[in-house]
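User: quick one
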Amino acid sequence: MTGHLPQDPHLLPAPAEWFAPDAERHYLDRPRFCPMCAASIGEHGGITTEYWTGDTRNFMTWCGECGWFGEVVRFDRVTITEEDH
Amino acid sequence: MLTVEQNNELTQVGPGTPMGELLRRYWYPIAFEQDFDKVPSRSVRLLSEDWTLYKTPSGRYGIIQERCAHRRASMTYGVVHEDGIRCGYHGWKYDVDGQCVEQPAEAENQNFKDRVQMKGGKAQTMGGMVWVYVGPDPAPELPRFDVFVKDGIRDVGYTTIPCNWLQIMENSVDPHHVEWLHGYYFNFVGETNGFEAPKAFQKKHIRTGFDEMEWGILKRRVLEGSTEDGDDWKIGHPLVFPFYMRVGGAYIDQMQIRVPIDDTHTWKLFYSTHNPGETLDVQDRPVVYEYLWKDEEGRFITDYIEGQDIMAWVSQGPITDRTQEHLGRSDAGVALLRKMFKENMRKVAEGEDPIGTIREKHEIINLPCEKDKFGAERTFAAAWIHGGSMRYSPIKEQLLELHERYWAGVEAAEKAGAGA
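Assistant: Done. Structure below.
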């Protein structure tokens, strides 16, 4: 999915800021719609908080429209750790 | 990690902001009763607005916006009446609801005063403090949380911290910081400065859990050496939405209070009630004192628990820039708290009561809290008093003696029982 950065540069950290690329990626990649009811997260008062585990980016998401609360996980690579067998 | 818009929405507490409207649905402690022993009125700042808090001759309290609607002079230097307050500049008088009722220099037969309404609120006392509500009517009941109303010796440390209240609240749903900031780092400070840091805070977390409950979020933990049968998991303790954390152990019950003064300042109180069960000579009022968090050279004081927390909160910046954070799985509680704030902003926007609103008269609200904290049992009281903000208390030695006496009695009874 492509996205674009907001027009106003002051809505994000300045490009020279150390973690500006992470902030940009969060803005572009965060879930925009509820996985349950498809309502807009932003327009219906929801929130998504990003946290990392290993190489994975997780978005803990709450929908302000239907109340769905869960995690949306973004994969760059699907990895499976084999259990002992 | 959040967007700029989300961060602004969560941290701005002024009138008309979504968070400001939510926070105005709650009562806040804003002064101590002893602050009015010598003067009848004081300026206070709450939720990014300036107010005049006043005490009438009969002992009732009122709150009104600080600047007079006439020419914007401070009402704090006005004349307090039993039924309101009069501006000292030109005598405009306002009733307890902020309605203008007299304008001495204006003609009586005009309806000018009827068209002048200042912002006001409700004020009452509890636990030795003056509490105010500056939200819309009808005001809810002031919640009588156990720490403020149960019997015991009361000890209240306070200070003003130059940071937003939300980053302090996020600390309360971040259990892992205890083993690092108050364990590993505290131990490092001790080794560097030649003292032994309390061992109770150095235990590793095996498991943490968060339950949404009627007053906020109940936190649980299992530390190494303990199991889910221990108080830390079985009972836990709550973050009380939206600005408290309830903690306790070894017969000390404490409410940690974070009053949002404005977007970049918080009034931070540790309200402790000590009651190990013996007959106490209880004071009429709590002992109140300011605790320190910076030394003469301007460095953070980090050889005690709350000083370490304050270092972390203040050094995060006046308002933490959450577009620049990198959260991990261990920060799940922080994400849960943010969701709770958004959820309750939405309730308020839709005309509903947010979580923690109580409209029935009541005597006491008992909150769940561990008795045996961190598995430290009887050593916890002394460790907390020595290693926490209570070390600045003018009655620190009395509190230590109180707890030592109690536990000496318990040990004596145990020995007598064992010998029988």
